[in-house]
Design brief:
The complex is a heterodimer. Chain A is mainly alpha-helical. Chain A has helices at 25-32, 38-47, 59-66, 103-112, 124-128, 158-174, 196-199, 201-205, 220-226, and strands at 91-95, 118-122, 149-151. In chain A, helix 5 (124-128) links the parallel strand 2 (118-122) and strand 3 (149-151). Chain B is built from 19 helices and 15 strands. In chain B, the strands form five sheets. In chain B, strands 1-2-5-4-3 form a five-stranded mixed β-sheet. Chain B starts with a helix and ends with a helix. The mean pLDDT of chain B is 89. Classes of the chains: A mainly alpha, B alpha+beta.
Chain lengths: 227, 581
Amino acid sequence: MGWWLSKPISGHQSEDRSEIGDGTLDEAVRRSVVTARLQDLIAWGRKNSLWPLNFGLSCCYIEMATSLTSQYDIARFGAEVVRGSPREADVIVIAGTVFMKMAPIIKRLYEQMMEPRWVISMGSCANSGGMYDIYSVVQGVDSFLPVDVYLPGCPPPPHTFMEGLLRLQEQVGRERRPLSWVMDDRPVSRPLMPSQRDRKRTERGQATDLLTIDRLPVTELKQEKWK
Amino acid sequence: MTQTAIVDDLCNRFGAGTFGRQETGDGIPTVWTTKERAREVLGYLKTEVERPYKMLYDLTAIDERVRRVRQGQSPSDFTVVYHLLSFERNEDLRLKIPLTEQVASLPTITDLWPAANWYEREVWDLFGITFVGHPHLRRILLPPTWQGHPLRKDHPARATEMGRFYLPEDRQETEEAALKFRPEEWGMKRSRETSDFMFLNMGPAHTGTHGILRLVLQLDEERIVDVVPDIGYHHRGAEKMSERQTWHTFIPYTDRIDYLGGVMNELPYVLAVEKLAGIVVPDRAKVIRVMMAEFFRLASHLVWYGTFAQDVGQLSPVFYMFTDRERIFHIVEAICGGRMHPEWFRIGGVAQDLPEGWDKLVREFLNYLPPRLAEYDDLVMRNAIFKARTQGIGRYSTAEAIDWGVTGPGLRATGFEWDFRKQRPYSGYDQFEFDVPIAMHGDCYDRAVVRVEEMRQSLRIIEQCLNHMPEGPYKAEHPLTTPPIKERTMHDIETLIAHFLSVSWGPVIPAGEAFVGIEATKGNNGYYLVSDGTPWPYRVRIRTPSFPHMQMVPLISRGLLLADLLAILGSVDFVLADVDR
């Protein structure tokens, strides 16, 4: 399928007609017919409409909620459809500390979600207990839930959450699942997701100019834009 | 040690032999008495004494069994501490009751102060001290299946000491069964003549509760007969954590108590440590602290504003307000390097000086926010539906507020002008010009009115900080300032060792006790520190405003509709980490 992004044409007809096409039958077919394998199409759909469960535990949830708001706007990635019911949600974000008193409830919520379902562990507490190695805190949600993506940070800022969501999308897009367990009992095949630390190592190693604490970082440019 | 008039008064009334006096680092009169006299003395202080102590500000305990430095104190295994507050005197009073391990019990005071109910349950839960006559003495923070009392010194602190956590099917079932609500246990009836009640479980995973809070509602159709809040889902053991962190490395944990309050949480803690250590903070550090704390008051109130409007059905305001909050975080990030939890105050000052160009950022923000606030007045506060949903809902009087331990905007909305920044200025607040907004009806709408006006006052304070930022050091020149000043090292081996020790161990804070409470975002947040002359605290008691505020929710919800409860929860403005710690 051929596709393109058209620019808004203001008033006059645009000189550049490449966006509009040449009007041949061939092109009309390319514009309106898509061929794909069903499993690819479903994976593509799943990937771009991951609906999160409206569920938060502590501080991290505030940052997760911030990613829904205007400046970050998670709707760009099709994940703004926050669901109140676990039955309608695709992904549960463990946003915050996993308390022992809360663990059975988290597990119940997860069990109420329909397959396919994914888990994002957001922040140090959910990853490993973080700074709370204390009697009332479970040391990592992965002791009772299968986690797909781990996000570092205390709390991870909204852009880290969105990065994590994109990583999950990448995984979901490459996952291969049988269309129905009735027809096909093959297991789910999940792609191997390399750690971001390894993936970005070279790029990060090239940084030579580190910010000092005595002057404002480059984000001052952003400040100009606000006016 | 000036406020001793009350101690003399007590001695005249009950006989000098009844009381032992203790000197503390904060000047709060601290007296010891026996558990037999406790109720009598507390009753006298609440009702009979001239200019009475009407608020039970805090009730907690200390496990004294391994404490070394206890001069002038009655011998005890456990000490129960009552912290009373008199608004008429503008004074506090601490009453301590010694208990032994064998007989760790004393009579309840729930009939004197309704607020004592949850505090006594908490002390039972965490220390295993029994309050005889308490109507529902059961666990409040920990799961009902829990064994042991974690704030006892012999209870393990780390989860990793307690074995790996497993959640197999049978444990899942046991835990869930233990959380099941049984109305009979709370003395509730299942029906009345005309109808059966419905028991509705709201939370702990519910979007209207602003976090993991569980409320069990007894409903007669849509009308609330009673509410039983079940808290403790967010109990992170911050107080126990303090006992193994150094004085310095506990600072990050304070940020996460009221996680919308950021550096505001650090302020009472560092002020209390400085009181114990005798550190005088330089003016620049004070003003920087005030400025950052007020930024976080704004940030917290913006979150409250947006979510409150959302609770009663307005979807757009929260998007505007979070955008403003991002701008605050832009400044916070530029100055502190972090967003929600900057961990930026230090014992004796702040982590670093303001960066070059900070003033421009702040000035731009000061020009930016006021017109937005004016717009929000039209959008929210003058909105007819918003008014209809909040006016006359969730009302309480000043007397009720004081009886239940309410402070902050919730108290000022009842017409009582009491702001700790004005009444007991700390960190140089007496040098600032600002008003204390109040409202008269004590309902959901008025609590909103107070907070909205408070945001304008915060802007005023920030503007004064900007215009009059003093020059000078950002850290005190005191040997216990942490991290120590680098210029003092590198002279000889002695200075190097001293520096190395206070960086790696942290400072050794002199033995003693000190309390500091401040006007935080949600109300009065206080830290009561007990030092045993070690590099870590012996006990840190964190008195948070949200705990008593949450306890009051049933009182102001009864008889209203289910939908009103969401307006009440929104207007109370609590943070679950601030309730459960």
